[in-house]
Each structure stands twice: as C-alpha cells, then as structure tokens.
Write a structure and sequence with these properties.
This protein is α/β, with parallel strands linked by helices. It has helices spanning 99-106, 130-135, 150-154, 157-161, and strands at residues 2-3, 20-24, 43-47, 53-58, 63-67, 74-79, 84-88, 91-92, 94-97, 118-120, 125-126, 139-143, 164-168. Strands 1-2-3-5-7-10 form a six-stranded parallel β-sheet, with no helix packed on it. Strands 4-6-9-13-12 form a five-stranded mixed β-sheet. It has a two-stranded parallel ribbon with strand order 8-11.
C-alpha cells in the first residue's frame, strides 16, 4: 500500500510475492508505466489519484477498485477478468474493451459491498465517446446490465436505473491496442 506519496517511476522487478497494489492519494507515475506492472498481481486499487487515463494493463486481477478519481476519464487496453470491480465517484467518458474483457465485465452481478464478487458503479458515469468508438470500428454496448440488486445495495433511484456504455472492439481488431491510446 502506498499512501500520500509521489511515485515517479515504477519498478519492473517486483518480487512475485507482491500480488496486491494499492495506490491511495498518490501523485502517480506516468500512465504508461502500467505496462511494467507484473501480470500476476490479483488486486489493483487506485483512489484519489491524478491519473487521467488507465491503459495498458493486462493482469490476472480478481479485484479492481477505482474510487474517487475525478480526473480519470479514459480506460483502454485494460484486459482484466475480475471477480469484483468498483468504479465509484468517477466519470468515464471513454472505455474501450475487447470481447473477453466485455464478457467479464458484463457478467458481473451488482452488489460488490459485503461480498468478494460483483460490481459497484455508484455515483459514476460511463458513457463512451461515439466518435472515438466509430473511428476504432467499435460498437457502443451497454455494460453492467444486471441491475437486480442495485436498489437494495445503495437505495438510490438514480443509481438503480443508470446505464453504462463501453466501446466494444471488433473481434478481428485486438487493435494493436497501442493505437487505441492515440485515436482521440
């Protein structure tokens, strides 16, 4: 856990025993440093960061927390298959996914709190940019469509009825995903 520090550069030689990365209230390294994260880590938690984009992360994550990140507006080339994901108090205007990530995200049940599994998107928006998605030959798709427990979870009508969209890349695209970060 790193809290209230500046992280200027990421090390590429973390021991394999490091499986959880939590960055809270940190002035963070360049977003491109995510490519150097070990692929074996299980938990990634980013809170109160100054990052604007989350890209180039491919890991065996079981839990993703993106909480209180007011500058975070874009997620791309973020290949995960989490058991739980929280995007709370954050507004995403572009989220680009491949087929496997889309299937993993959309299969999540609502209700992250109190359990290991599920999603929580409380007080957040995810509305992918149609112009950018069209340039990528993608399709805007609803995500986190299972709304059954949202009202019980947060007792909030706005959240209970919220819709979220991502840009789903075509199967053939796997877009040398490096291009994805340069489309806008």
């Amino acid at each position: 856990i790193l809290t209230d520090v500046a992280v200027p550069v990421w090390t590429t030689n973390l021991p394999p025993s490091v499986t959880h990365i939590w960055l809270h209230n940190c002035s963070l390294l360049p977003e491109t440093e995510l490519e150097k994260f070990p692929s074996n880590f299980l938990s990634f938690d980013l809170q109160n960061s100054d990052w604007m984009e989350l890209a180039h992360l491919s890991a065996t994550l079981q839990d993703v927390g993106l909480i209180n990140n007011p500058n975070l507006h874009r997620i791309a080339n973020f290949r995960v298959n989490p058991a739980g994901i929280s995007v709370v108090n954050t507004s995403i205007s572009s989220w680009i996914v491949d087929n496997s990530t889309y299937a993993a995200l959309n299969s999540q049940p609502p209700g992250k709190y109190g359990t290991e599994n599920g999603y929580d998107m409380f007080n957040s928006t995810i509305e992918s940019d149609p112009v950018e998605c069209d340039k990528l030959k993608g399709t805007l798709m609803p995500v986190f469509t299972n709304k059954t427990l949202r009202s019980a979870m947060r007792n909030n009508n706005t959240y209970s009825n919220a819709n979220f969209t991502v840009c789903l890349l075509p199967r053939s695209s796997y877009l040398s995903m490096a291009r994805v970060t340069h489309v806008m």
